[in-house]
What we know:
Elements: E1 7-9, E2 21-23, E3 27-31, H1 32-35, E4 49-54, E5 61-65, E6 75-84, E7 89-90, E8 94-102, E9 107-112, E10 118-123, E11 130-135, E12 141-149, E13 155-160, E14 165-170, E15 180-187, E16 196-197, E17 199-208, E18 222-225, E19 229-233, E20 236-244, E21 252-257, E22 268-273, E23 280-282, E24 289-291, E25 294-300, E26 305-311, H2 318-325
Antiparallel strand pairs: 1-17, 2-5, 3-4, 4-17, 5-15, 6-12, 6-17, 7-16, 8-9, 8-15, 9-10, 10-11, 12-13, 13-14, 18-26, 19-25, 20-23, 20-24, 20-26, 21-22, 21-25
Amino acid sequence: MAFPYKFESNFEVGSDSEWTATVGTQVSVESYKELARQRNWGVPYQGAFALQAVFGVDTDSYVRTTGLTITSGDVDDTRFMLYIGKDVEATVTTEVAIFQHLPAIAAVGLRIEAGGDIKFGIRSTSAALTTSPITLERGVYYTIELETDSTNTNTCTARIDELGIVVTTANASATASTTEGWLGVIGIGAGSLANVSGTVTLDKIAHDTNRIYGDAHRFASRQVLTKSGHAFVGPGRITDLTLVSGLGTDCVLDIYDTDSATIVPDTFVMRLTNNVSGESVMYNGQQPIVLHKGAYVVISGTDPRAVVSATAPAYSNEAALRSFAR
């Protein structure tokens, strides 16, 4: 893994502004409070916001970016978190791509069977999915990785880390580079997305030249933030904080007391800055930093990271988060 990533989006600004555009009407960035209203929906994997895609309309809907690309001859990895809603069903077996490159060198998606099973798969260009025989569960998050080899006929590989699933396909595209990445619900073949009901929740996508992998713990007490985001929501305390600066003297870490990415004078709490390139700047306060609504950590400058240790009762597990949100 190299840092910084070539592309990263966690939706924590509360909108699709990290992306070039939104296509279709069935995807939107939603807060944890909205997503927790329905027990069948997925709340954000981490933080306060995630992308929700709603089935039921035969229209491809996705966010697209020209910032997620692969150079000719390269092999890149894309990782994101996928929650299959407890309400996902199909009246007719339907295949849907969840993430794909443009041109469609490789894509990962789901085969939602009329009998109830859901399978994970990979495809190249306009082919059907090559799926794993393992049936996926509804109501859980999966770490999805797509390793894309841009050279024609070379192997592309898709993985679900938690289940040890590995599926492959040959790159069938004559175009040896990509210009965009799409994340959402994209119909495959003659199947209609209108035959599927329910939702999927998507979060924490990153793209790089090497495997990125997932997290050891979803609700970790110690987090490394590579992009601005909510370290937790609800009341809590930051017990340790470090700004890890990149190769510049312009790195800034700001803390705001908010669970909605609200950056105004009233929500500002504190700031760390660096003076030396590559410097690690630690919070030296004698007392924990107390937050009431949440901890929105905003980092800027040359490739900064934030290391945050915190305790927050409402952010200790998914059940606690859902209970607090309601």
